Amino acid sequence: MILKSKVQYNWDMLPRIVVWRGLDREEVHRHLNVKDNCVVLFEGSEANVKDFRRWVISAIDILGRKPEYSGIIWDAHKLSWECQAVLLKPLEELDQANIVLVTEAENLLAETILSRCVVESLATENVKSGKYWSRVLTAWKEGPASCIALSDELSQDEALELSEEIGLKIRGLLRDKANPKRVEVLKGALLLMEEMRAKNLNVKLCLGEFLLKGWRATKLA
């Protein structure tokens, strides 16, 4: 998926935002085709502006001299707004797509970051298969009791898979043509899911709350 921007970019040369869902870091590295010893790494969850600015300067220097290297920022959605602002100029001026922002919630990144990058989503095969989506639709059709029952009967791992699947499904619906009211409902649902995930709440509690709010939203759509 490529997010559109008013600025005309060469998309093949843009940095990337990789949305990883249900995958471990080794799988993401394999997808990116990078070697562990050729990575300039930064943990977004540990960021402060001073350290992050120092990392950006160092990473750009290394990547400029060693094109086989990649700069990877894990948990990019946990970067503060000040840290994200530090990235704006480097992302715009980079000559090659060798910086990757890895995140579980791209909607929590600044629009100015998103507009400078190509966004792609990764997921496990179970998530891609849509194995739970029909059960979500049934729960929303039947009402609150079914929503609560669905979240209660799933294990933590199953609830995580379902939350990933919901994110993929909503993004797919947003890419389809829909009436403006439905688009706003879907955007709100996606933001709610990702905000809850970013707060590191219990995934089953997050899922239960999301299903109930999703049921209410379907009544308005």
Question: What attributes does this structure have?
Answer:
Rossmann fold, 12% strand, five-stranded parallel sheet, disordered N terminus, alpha/beta, 5 strands, elongated, 10 helices, 221 residues
Descriptive overview:
- The protein is an alpha/beta fold.
- It has two domains: 11-123, P-loop containing nucleotide triphosphate hydrolases (Rossmann fold), CATH 3.40.50; 126-220.
- 56% of the residues lie in helices and 12% in strands.
- It has ten helices and five strands; from the N terminus they run E-H-E-H-E-H-E-H-E-H-H-H-H-H-H.
- It has helices at 25-32, 49-65, 81-93, 111-114, 125-129, 133-142, 144-153, 156-175, 180-198, 203-220; strands at 16-21, 39-43, 70-74, 99-103, 118-123.
- A five-stranded parallel β-sheet has the order 2-3-4-1-5.
- Helix 7 packs antiparallel against helix 10 (203-220).
- The longest helix has 20 residues, at 156-175.
- It is elongated and about 60 Å long.
- The model is unreliable at 1-13 (pLDDT under 50).
